[in-house]
User: Which sequence fits this backbone?
C-alpha cells in the first residue's frame, strides 16, 4: 500500500472506532451497505475511504442514527418491540414475514436468529392484523407442514449483499455457486477448469461462523440451498451468470507445459583433438602408469556339485574335501553330520531315549521331582 492510499483509506478497526460502533455492528453495517469499502493493495483487503467516514460522521443523527440502523435483536427482544409473545413472533418469522440478518449456534447446537430492529418495527407498522387474533388459515397450514423460511431468507439476503459488492461476472457466478452443493455445481458446470476457477473465487464464510465441529456442520447446512425450488432457481441463475462470464472472458486454463529443449553440445576448443576413451594417461614421474586395458580375469574354476545317494547319504565327487576336512578342529576319525549312518533322525532317537528313561525310572533322583535345593 502506498503512502497516498494509506492517507485516503482507513483500516476496519480504526473505522469502527471513528464511527463509534462495535466490531459486530461495523461488520453488519458493511454487510447492509451502510458503510462502503474499497479493495486496497494486491491482497484486495477491504478498507474504508476517508471521504466515506466524513460523509457518515457529518449526518445530523450521528452516531445514534447509524447505531440504530445496525441494531440487531433476538426473538425475545423483537417480540417485545411488537408487544407479542416470542412464540407468535417465531411463527411469523418461519412464514417469511421477517427475514433474519444473521445467525449463531449456541452451546446446545441450537440456531439463534437475529433480526434488524428497524425491519421488525416496520413490519409491525405495516401488518398490524397479524399481531393480534388468530393467524390466517394458509399460515396455519404452512406451519403445520413444518415450513421454515428463515434459512432461505437469510441466504437470499446474503446473496444480495455479495452480488452488490462486485461487478466481476465470474465473482458473481461464484457467489451463486456458493449456495449450491458440489454435486449440483458439477451438473451445471461441465468444465472442471471453470469449476476450479469458481472455487477459487468462492466468497469467505459469513462472520461469526462457528469453529467447533458439530456447530460448524449445522452452520454449513444453513449456507446451502435445501428446498427443491430454491435449488432450481439458483441452478438457473448460475447458468445465466456463467453465460455472461464466458461472454466477457473465458476461465483461466493451466498453461501448457514448455517442452524440454534439446541440450546444445558444447563446442570443443580450436585445435583440440578428441581423446579416445581407452587412451592411457600421461606418465607422471614417481607414479606408475595406469594400464589402459584392465588385467584379464582368470576363468572360474568349475566346482563339482555333490549328489544324494541312497537313504539320504551325500556322495561327494572324488577329489573334493568332505565336511570333516572343512573343520580343522575336528579329529580325522570322528564322523561328521553327513557321515552318520542312515536311519531315524536325531530327534526321533532322543524321544526314544526319553521314553525308555521314563519307563525304567532313570533321570532325576526322586522320581523326576526337583530337589529342595533347586534354585
Assistant:
Amino acid at each position: 500500500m502506498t503512502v497516498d492510499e494509506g492517507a485516503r483509506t482507513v483500516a476496519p478497526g480504526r473505522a469502527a472506532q471513528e464511527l463509534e460502533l462495535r466490531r459486530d455492528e461495523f461488520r453488519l453495517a458493511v454487510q447492509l451497505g451502510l458503510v462502503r469499502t474499497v479493495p486496497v493493495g494486491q491482497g484486495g483487503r477491504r478498507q474504508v475511504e476517508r471521504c466515506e467516514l466524513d460523509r457518515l460522521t457529518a449526518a445530523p443523527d450521528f452516531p445514534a442514527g447509524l447505531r440504530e440502523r445496525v441494531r440487531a435483536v433476538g426473538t425475545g427482544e423483537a417480540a417485545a418491540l411488537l408487544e407479542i409473545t416470542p412464540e407468535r413472533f417465531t411463527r411469523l418469522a418461519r412464514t417469511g414475514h421477517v427475514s433474519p440478518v444473521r445467525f449463531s449456534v449456541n452451546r446446545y447446537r441450537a440456531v439463534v436468529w437475529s433480526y434488524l430492529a428497524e425491519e421488525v418495527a416496520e413490519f409491525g407498522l405495516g401488518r398490524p392484523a397479524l399481531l393480534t387474533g388468530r393467524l390466517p388459515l394458509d399460515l396455519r397450514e404452512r406451519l403445520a407442514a413444518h415450513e421454515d423460511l428463515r434459512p432461505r431468507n437469510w441466504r437470499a439476503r446474503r446473496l444480495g449483499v455479495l452480488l452488490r459488492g462486485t461487478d466481476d461476472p465470474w465473482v458473481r457466478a461464484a457467489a451463486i455457486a456458493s449456495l449450491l452443493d458440489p454435486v449440483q455445481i458439477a451438473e451445471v458446470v461441465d468444465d472442471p477448469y471453470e469449476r476450479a476457477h469458481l472455487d477459487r473465487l468462492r466468497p469467505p464464510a459469513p462472520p461469526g461462523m462457528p469453529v467447533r465441529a458439530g456447530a460448524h456442520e449445522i452452520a454449513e447446512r444453513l449456507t446451502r440451498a435445501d428446498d427443491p425450488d430454491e435449488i432450481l432457481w439458483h441452478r438457473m441463475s448460475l447458468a445465466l451468470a456463467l453465460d455472461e462470464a464466458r461472454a466477457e472472458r473465458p476461465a483461466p486454463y493451466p498453461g501448457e507445459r514448455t517442452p524440454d529443449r534439446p541440450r546444445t553440445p558444447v563446442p570443443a576448443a580450436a585445435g583440440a583433438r578428441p581423446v579416445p576413451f581407452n587412451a592411457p594417461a600421461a606418465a607422471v614421474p614417481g607414479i606408475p602408469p595406469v594400464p589402459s586395458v584392465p588385467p584379464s580375469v582368470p576363468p572360474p574354476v568349475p566346482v563339482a556339485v555333490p549328489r544324494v545317494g541312497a537313504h539320504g547319504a551325500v556322495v561327494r565327487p572324488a577329489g573334493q574335501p568332505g565336511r570333516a576336512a572343512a573343520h580343522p578342529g575336528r579329529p580325522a576319525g570322528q564322523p561328521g553330520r553327513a557321515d552318520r549312518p542312515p536311519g531315524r533322525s536325531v530327534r526321533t532317537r532322543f524321544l526314544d531315549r526319553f521314553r525308555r528313561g521314563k519307563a525304567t525310572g532313570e533321570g532325576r533322583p526322586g522320581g523326576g521331582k526337583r530337589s529342595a535345593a533347586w534354585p
About this structure: Residues 3-67 form a domain with the Multidrug-efflux Transporter Regulator; Chain: A; Domain 2 fold (CATH 1.10.1660). The two ends are 86 Å apart (CA to CA). The CA atoms of residues 109 and 214 lie 7 Å apart. Strands lie at 9-10, 38-40, 45-49, 72-73, 102-105, 111-116, 307-308, 314-315.
